[in-house]
Amino acid sequence: MSERREETLNPLAEAEKETGHADQELFGIGDLAEEFEISTRSIRFYESKGLISPQRVNGVRIYNRKDRARLALILRGKAIGSSLSEIKHFLDLYGQHGEGHRQQLEYLGSRTGEVLKELSARKEALEVTISEIQSIHDECMAKLAEE
């Protein structure tokens, strides 16, 4: 009796049994939150937006390697300033079996090119501002030295 009870208390083992993929790496929400240093609430939010779709075993979310990879891509997309709709579009391009991989690369190349242009423009504007502030600072310091 305790052996059966132990099996049902471990949703990862239960998922492996149900799917027949005992060799497949499975993760709990806490595992992914810890690995990516984000909250479980963030992961549930991405799920609610349709960015990841874990399977459920007895009401517990079970993530596979594909879900883990998608989460990594979501976080990378956010790091470069992509919106959730842009990230979803990028992820959806992949397709069920990777048939959209080239479209993903084309989209990513285009998007990162845009981000690079925006950042370069900001960098130039910052360099002008820094130069102006440096000039004002130098003038102030020179006048103070004269007094």
Briefly say what this structure is.
With 147 residues, the protein is mostly helical. Helix content is 71%, strand content 7%.
Written description of the protein model:
Helices cover 71% and strands 7% of the residues. The protein has a three-stranded antiparallel beta sheet with strand order 1-3-2. Strand 2 (55-57) and strand 3 form a beta hairpin. Mean pLDDT is 86; it is low at 1-8. The chain has 147 residues and is mainly alpha-helical. The protein is built from seven helices and three strands. The chain starts with a helix and ends with a helix.
Name the descriptors.
147 residues, 3 strands, three-stranded antiparallel beta sheet, mainly alpha, 71% helix, disordered N terminus
List the helices and strands and how they pair.
Layout: H1 2-9, H2 11-19, E1 26-28, H3 29-36, H4 40-48, E2 55-57, E3 60-64, H5 65-79, H6 84-93, H7 101-146
Antiparallel strand pairs: 1-3, 2-3
Helix pairs in contact: 5-6
